[in-house]
Amino acid sequence: MNFNPKHILGIKNLSAAEIHFILDSAASFKEINSRQIKKVPTLRGKTIVNLFFEASTRTRTSFEIAGKRLSADTINISASSSSVVKGETLEDTAKNIEAMHPDIIVMRHSASGACDYLAQRLKCSVINAGDGTHEHPSQALLDAFTIRQHKKKIEGLTVTIAGDITHSRVVRSNIYCLTKLGAKVRVAGPRTMLPPGLEKLGCEVFTDLREAIRDVDCIMMLRIQRERQGKTLIPSLREYARFYGLNPDNIKLAKSDVIVLHPGPMNRGVEISSLVADGPHNVILDQVENGVAVRMALLYLVSGGESVQNV
Amino acid sequence: MRVLVKNGHLLDPVNNIDGRYDVLIEDGKVAAVGADLALAVNDAEIIAADGLLVAPGLIDIHVHLRDPGLEYKEDIISGTHAAAAGGVTSVACMPNTSPVIDTAPVVEYIINKARQHGCANVYPVAAISQAMKGDVLSEMGELKAAGCVAFSDDGVPVVSGELMRRAFEYADTFGAPIISHAEDLSLVGEGCMNEGDVATELGLKGIPWVAEDAATAREIMLAEFTNSRLHMAHVSTRGSVELVRQAKARGVKVTCEATPHHFTLTDEAVRGYNTNAKMNPPLRSQADVDAVHAGLADGTIDAIATDHAPHHYDEKNVEFAIAMNGIVGLETMLPLTMNLVRTGVISLRQAIALMTCQPAAIIGIDRGSLNVGAVADLVLIDPEFEWTLDAKQLKSKSKNTPFDGWTMHGAAIRTLLAGRTVFQREQ
To answer: What is the rounded CA–CA span in Å between residue B71 and residue B117?
Structure first.
């Protein structure tokens, strides 16, 4: 098959076959990243704008490296977090950039739906690098890629995602991605961090982390945002760590070959103890490495690339 | 000047009229209602109403006219044109203008401008608190004397229970009801749509139904405690309909209204981050829509009101979370209400009562009937008229409607204000 979407806005509307196609393409690109000369001419002459309205180190760098390794010209724009504060509308900002003829805009924005908004108004391709608490498709794809790398398959696995489910864009994309690929997804967190209707997205909901990770194949810990402590969602990071942190004790409840993922940045000692983060089950840096390959695949496919055999 | 509306199906709930009658209008007032009046009248302008429903002009007690101060969204002239096109002859306008309707001169400005240039009766609703800041009561006595019909800090709920208590007592002193927009703001937080499956999926912050129910409960208790009149604006949840139902049963002086969008759409309409489906209260679940239907059917809900909220294109053409709340509604109230009749939720007579005499009673105006001697505000309705809504064609200055492109059934064919035709639909 060939799969050349105009945009990558989310996982929700992708089919399992399309996701596999992206992951297979990423596997071909991964090899380039370990070459002596880590560059292919595939996207030479293409211009990619990384338009980031929210601070991001990992995702932005990953997209930038992905573009550069494909020989595209990548430009990074860090805009103010709110178009309102800046006084210019998102549409105007984007249209000004579009007037300079980029081929792809990769956008991170604090508003859910911002990438859909952009895609409806621009002629160039839009890749969602995280919109509000909606989707973060490249993250879910690199997570799936990493799971597939370690488990050789995704179908039939049980994956637990734990943390602030309400405010996580990673969760939504991962639920769509993993369930489409045949995995069972569990989510876990205190009730203050569990929005209604999660079951309808196709996952099982837990409030007890220990129950949630029993006999699972993969555990994905979400970053707890420090600014939420002492507000209404959780009383303290200390208490959160006690009930919802992954540590060498409770991880024993999972399968012995469980792998531990984290989208980063980690709060060591809060949602994940250092002994787990640095321990034998962790695949966290593999996720980062695979992120570049997955994003190369996305940039390539959105640009109309066909077979990945000859890059 | 005599006008004879001839051969229409007259529906006037107040006078229990439901049949083929003529209406004779003389000097802007209803002079006679009867069968075959034409035989006795030979010098009147004849308006043929064959096959049409003839009803008192519709009354919408929840409208934002945006005048003074926000005329880029709407003004009294454009807003009353929109009203006339929707068959609406009387509107109550909300005080969140600039300046706020919290002094007599602003009330007088609105009434005078509407009289001179408008094509509907305009009844200002003044603010409960000065500048709608929730601190000090507005000068309710003087505002009432100037012509306002009710008090509300619509859109900015009064947080203080003490101030709200005193507002009930003081407004009652001058015989005016309090209209409450019920929201517990701490429960709303940064929510921008109904909390539920759709919000979870879209990653948008939710507004839980309990934010409306908890505030509704407080308002009802305060109205009961002060033995004063309360009108609940735009009830949108199962819980608030039930709270009003129970309160009425034990004799609390409470009435309430529902909007066409809350009885027509659910939060599914938000999908695609459609900012024209963003309003406050938000579009709710199907169970809530069903409860609003039940409330309309059993009389718990007294009025249909639109919460007509014009916003400029630029204020809706943004990310969902920062888009303004609200939609225009004056020109879609009638067909959306006729849908309820067609689907058997309410009878035609109920529909007309919900849009005429019942809202009139809430704000205490002498409109909404075809009593002999009453001002001849009339609407001629073709209940089956099929048309497609084109937002660009709306008379309102703003085009923010989620119903763009919808096929509508039912329309005002002609609208008369004090016997004068203020709208006639091109057919």
So the answer is: 15
Determine, for residues B204 and A112 on separate chains, whether the beta-carbon distance falls below 8 Å.
yes
CATH code of the region A16-136+289-302: 3.40.50.1370
The number of helix segments (H) and strand segments (E) in chain B equals 14, 18
Pick B197's closest partner by Cβ from A91, A166, A196: A196
Q: How far is A117 from chain B (nearest CA, A)?
A: 7
Chain B 172-201, residues with CB within 8 Å of chain A CB atoms = 195-201
Q: Tell me what the mean pLDDT of segment B304-323 comes to.
A: 97
Do B187 and B221 belong to one domain?
Answer: yes
- Statement: residue A193 has pLDDT above 80: yes
Record the pTM: 0.93
Q: Out of 1.25.40.10, 3.40.50.1370, 3.40.50.720, 3.90.190.20, select the CATH number for domain A137-288.
A: 3.40.50.1370
CB contact under 8 A, A195 and B200: yes
In chain A, what is the greatest distance between 2 CA atoms, to the nearest angstrom? 56
Top-confidence range, A86-90, B38-42, B250-254: B250-254
> What would the mean pLDDT of B309-332 be, rounded to a whole number?
97
Count the Cβ atoms, other than its own, within 10 Å of residue B81: 23
Mean pLDDT across A57-84: 87
Catalytic residue among B307, B377, B382, B404: B307
ipTM summary value: 0.89
What's the pLDDT at A85? 60
CB contact set of B359 (below 8 Å; sequence gap of 6+): B59, B60, B61, B257, B302, B303, B304, B305, B368
Q: Say whether B199 and A172 touch across the interface (CB within 8 A).
A: no
Given CB atoms, is A171 within the 8 Å cutoff of chain B? no
CB A302 within 8 A of CB A4: yes
| Residues B248 and B229 placed together within one structural domain of the fold | yes
pLDDT of res. B40: 74
Q: CATH 3.40.50.1370: which residues of chain A?
A: 16-136+289-302, 137-288
